[in-house]
Amino acid sequence: VYWVADIFLGFVTGLLHKGHLITDRRKICRHYLQTWFFIDVGVTVMDIVLEFGAVDDTVGKLSQITQFFQDQFETQVASMEFSLIFVMLSMGLAEHVIACFWFGLGQTRSAGEETWISVSPYAEQGFMLQYLAALRWALAQQGMGNTEIEAISLREGIYTCGVAFISLLIFSTVISSMTSLVSAVHGKRMLEMQQMGILRRFLRQNNIPAGLSARITRFLQYTYHQVASESHSQPPILELLPRSLHAELQFACYESCMRKITFLKEIMPRRGSVSAKQEQVVHKIATHAISLMHAAEDDLIFANGTEAEILFWPTQGSFRYLQTEKALQVQEGQWISEMCLWCQWAHVGDFISDGFTKLVTIHAEEFCKCVAKVVELQMQAHRHATTYVDA
Questions:
Q1: What secondary structure does DSSP assign to 225-261, as a single string?
Q2: Among 150, 146, 143, 95, which residue's Cα sits nearest to residue 120?
Q3: Is residue 201 domain-resident?
Q4: Which of 30, 55, 114, 206 has its CA 20 to 30 A from that of 7?
Q5: How far apart are CA 230 and CA 251, in angstroms?
Q6: If DSSP codes are grouped into helix, strand and coil, which group holds residue 18?
Q7: Which domain does 27 fall in, by range?
Q8: Contacts for 12 with CB less than 8 Å, ≥ 6 apart
């Protein structure tokens, strides 16, 4: 309540400006809107949400938003665009620093000494015009435009020579970097446009129905960008890893969802608590039995009455599980069709994605092959299957 009231008080509280008390309501409101208003509103809204809202949900949503932007920035195209912006900002900062030193030299004068400001038409002008003249001079040293401002004193002449030498290095480096980055970004986008053009031509030449064509195009456009920023998409450099280290990496990627299966949680490697055989089996399951699956809007993941061969873990998006009399919404973070790991099973409903979604899958046949390689684990799995099915 205090901080909300403080926002309203900010519009009526006087302020000091250059030693003068300002009480004009319009000036007070304009000053507050230009300074602390948006900061106060942002902090107050956050406090209200954390105080009266669902804290866990809010923090979870903020984490998802942060992860989304982090993934977007880690894509190759976004990285190049960010590098291009960084080069431009660095260039602007360098020009600002050069202009500030040049402006300082123009303001510093001894008795009877002339400077570039004192002999220029800007001698009687305000600070902003003098700074803009200095900035224009700095840009002219890079070959961007021209200016009539010249060095007058010895200090200004020495500074001009130093700036000319530094500008030669900066200008060539910046132009080279910007050219390569722009070419790379343009090449990536042209590749995407080319692939989408080939796809549309293929769909048109094969007389694919318009509805199906639209669904395919939307899904591939989504997947093209999603896979580029996908944390699970393995960069090619990982192919250099030895098989054992790659298996450990795969296990680390899927460990959290694997622990939700009781049997796997029991045999998960803990320091000093399992044998090397068990650890190897778990790593093989992560490498050979687990994979990622993308689904489009209204995709049928499995149908009622079909044999269950794959276990599903939704990681992104929502799903519908349709049975004869009811429909259930399935959210992230739960295994679907775990029964197929322990016995022959048929689905008793339809599992449909609501939009563009992503799932972690475990193939039951590969899972059984991995477990069967160790006799002790095979027997333990048999006991667990009996208990699970009876329950």
A1: HHHHT-TTSPPGGGGGS-HHHHHHHHHHHHHHHHTTS
A2: 150
A3: no
A4: 55
A5: 17
A6: coil
A7: 2-53
A8: 25, 28
Q: Are 252 and 368 members of one domain?
A: yes
Which residues, including other chains, have CB under 8 Å from residue 233's CB and lie 6 or more apart? 227
Residues 159 and 94 placed together within one structural domain of the fold: yes
Number of domain units in the chain: 3
**Do residues 366 and 288 make contact, with C-beta atoms less than 8 angstroms apart?**
yes
Tell me, yes or no, whether 30 and 99 share the same domain: no
Do 9 and 87 share a structural domain? Answer: no
Does residue 136 form part of some domain?
yes
Q: What is the pLDDT of residue 272?
A: 47
In a domain, 282, yes or no: yes
CB 175 within 8 A of CB 143: no
C-alpha to C-alpha distance for 226 and 219, rounded to whole angstroms: 10
Most confident among 15-19, 48-52, 180-184, 385-389 (mean pLDDT): 385-389
How far apart CA 228 and CA 195 sit, in angstroms, is 15
- The dihedral built from the CA positions of residue 3, 9, 11 and 17, taken in this order, carries a sign that is negative
Report pLDDT digits (tens) over 170-192: 777 777 777 877 777 777 778 77
- If one counts every other C-beta atom within 10 angstroms of the C-beta of residue 112, the result is 5
| pLDDT tens digits, one per residue of 327-369 | 888 878 888 988 999 988 899 899 998 877 889 999 999 999 9
Please determine, for residue 64, whether its predicted confidence score (pLDDT) is greater than 70: no
**278 shares its domain with 146:** no
- Lookup: tokens for 344: 């022959």
CA proximity to 372, closest of 284, 290, 309 = 284
**% of the chain at pLDDT higher than 90:** 7
Question: What three-state secondary structure class fits 2?
Answer: helix
Q: What pTM was computed for the model? A: 0.52
Residues 248 and 382 in one domain: yes
Convert 142-155 to b/e letters by CB count within 10 Å (16 or more is b).
beeeeeebebbbee
